[in-house]
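Thread: zinc ion complex, take 2
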Amino acid sequence: MEQQHLYNYILGIADNNLILGQRLGELCGHGPNLETDIALTNIALDLFGQVRSYYQYAAQILGEGATEDDVAFLRKEREYRNVLLVEQPNTHFGYVIGRQFLFDVFHYLFIEQLQHSNDETLSAIAKKAIKEVSYHKRFSGDWIKRLGDGTKESQAKMQEAIDALWPYTQELFEMNAFEKEALENQVGVNLPELKEAYDEQVGQVLQEATLKIPENPYFHKGGKEGIHTEHMGYLLSDLQYMQRTYPNMNW
Amino acid sequence: MTVTEKPHIDTTLIPILERVSDPEIPVLSVLDLGVIREAVEENGLVKIKLTPTYSGCPAMDVMSDDLKAAFHKEGKTAEVSLVLSPAWTTDWISEKGKEKMEAYGIAAPLEASADKEVLLGEKRLVKCPQCGSTNTHLVSQFGSTACKALFQCDDCHEPFDYFKCLK
Ligand SMILES: [Zn+2]
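Output below.
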């Protein structure tokens, strides 16, 4: 697979981790209670740990002394390839949990397959990450049930979040040119093939939670091509602030 | 229990490695924790392969620096590289390490199937490191660090950390 294309394929995976981790990081010190606050930031830490491995690999492909920080912080909005789902804001706790759950189920199915990549580095990262993501999925799934099958108010808020976020899930299974090329080279994952298991697993938890998947929504997409929702610019200005203000700073 | 490849470690380096501890669980050395996958000395250079417990564990950078410093103190130069594969599992924590962990107040990881049952709240199996009772319950799946869950003992009522099984 051509190196520049592989680089773009890696970003398509890694940027989801970075942007979702950033969203969860915003909640540090603002969680609804101490245990949840710690859990969400622990999940963010796992995602950041994984993304460092991906970006170190991407920086190696770029060469010329590029570092993981360059890849993480110094791109323009149009160059980030994360799906729209992960950049959606922390509107309320139902959204935080809904976004997490809808991503976690996909994330698990995805890295389960990525373990079999014939790219040794990607396979090693996936084998490491899958153990962590199984904990994430359990955490968010438990909360979906607790809020959905909870009080009248928590049920309504959880349903509101699912209604708002579900239209961003279709994009997870649509393949762009780099993803297709990666699949042809046995480097990447066949995304449409994950859809059936995804629908089944999500459906099962939502049913237990007395929640419904919205019917015939209008699905949004564009993130993989760098076309983001209006929230992304604000998120990036926060994320990139230190590197833009103090170029080349490090801890 | 899975049989894992034994790491290749030069016996002469063991005393130095034993002095480097996990910054978050200082009673455990890097050897107890099972994160050293290789340590060999070649032409005066010590080459170490370190594997992370969790991808985002901030202790890994500290361990890497501490390893270099410990060898520097002995007049040796150490080079530390991070390896991801095969992925670390809690099975690599030594028996001695698990005992030290318990004495320090952290419940050691159970086997995978038992771990799942306690984290799902189906069974009470985690032993309170204070009084030894297994009448304990899960408070939160995530504790003070990513590798631990928070538990409470229903006999002596002490809260404590449980080191989650990772396999
Ligand atoms: Zn007790």
